[in-house]
Inverse folding.
């Protein structure tokens, strides 16, 4: 066994939505630490490009076409992942989106349901697959969900997004307690404003405000996701569970 800290040699990590943005950033960090990566994503081209990027770094990666809002698609991807890698050690439920935006009083039940399916039910389905597998083979595992500081602060015109990101933060607390004796950990990462395609699709005043509220005066970069992803997968985080780790450059504690 290696004595290096944060050594993930032999570790297999699944990352939903891992073909771009925050998901690919986490995959990049995990590969640097020696992990093997299973990417779940809807776009065959983006999947292939992501795998090529990780392999160019010397990593081992495979991608599986998957729509996490479809239970059968997720189940198929899980089976295919096990067939390819033989085991799974950590599961990053990262896929999601802003959902339906608009004034709260105008949002329909269908609007709320679609955002819930994307950001909450997909996480539940994915985590159920992982937990059932780990219990069956009697091995520990690590569950990580990408939440958001929107779950703490709220975003006007995006109440569905805020509500769902708060929901998954609450989810990991319950899972940590329920499955802790089985060696299963559950934690959430709550990123602040980090430069992604989704975050940059916001009004300029919002982006300027995020930069102003950061302690450093800077917007987060994708590589800022790498270290926390590695830590949560590693043996060094064995005593951390049920936690919501805020990665926002100080945005949520800014006093003005």
């Amino acid at each position: 066994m290696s004595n290096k800290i944060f050594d993930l040699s032999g570790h297999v990590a699944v990352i939903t939505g891992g073909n771009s943005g925050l998901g690919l950033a986490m995959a990049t960090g995990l590969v640097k630490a020696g992990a093997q990566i299973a990417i779940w994503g809807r776009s065959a081209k983006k999947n292939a490009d992501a795998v090529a990027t990780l392999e160019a770094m010397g990593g081992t990666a495979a991608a599986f076409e998957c729509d996490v809002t479809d239970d059968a698609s997720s189940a198929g991807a899980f089976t295919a992942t096990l067939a390819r890698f033989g085991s799974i050690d950590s599961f990053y439920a990262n896929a999601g989106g802003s959902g339906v935006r608009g004034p709260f009083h105008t949002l329909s039940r269908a609007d709320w349901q679609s955002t819930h399916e994307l950001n909450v039910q997909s996480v539940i389905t994915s985590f159920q697959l992982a937990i059932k597998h780990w219990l069956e083979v009697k091995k520990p595992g690590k569950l990580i969900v990408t939440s958001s500081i929107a779950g703490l602060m709220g975003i006007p015109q995006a109440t569905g997004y805020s509500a769902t990101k708060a929901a998954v933060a609450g989810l990991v607390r319950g899972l940590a307690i329920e499955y802790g004796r089985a060696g299963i950990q559950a934690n959430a990462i709550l990123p602040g404003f980090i430069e992604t395609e989704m975050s940059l699709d916001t009004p300029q005043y919002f982006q300027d405000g995020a930069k102003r509220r950061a302690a450093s005066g800077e917007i987060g970069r994708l590589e800022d996701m790498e270290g926390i992803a590695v830590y949560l997968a590693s043996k060094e985080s064995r005593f951390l569970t049920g936690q919501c780790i805020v990665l926002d450059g100080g945005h949520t504690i800014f006093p003005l």
Remarks:
- The mean pLDDT is 94.
- The beta strands are 12-16, 36-41, 60-65, 90-93, 141-146, 184-191, 244-247.
- Residues 42 and 67 are 6 Å apart (CA to CA).
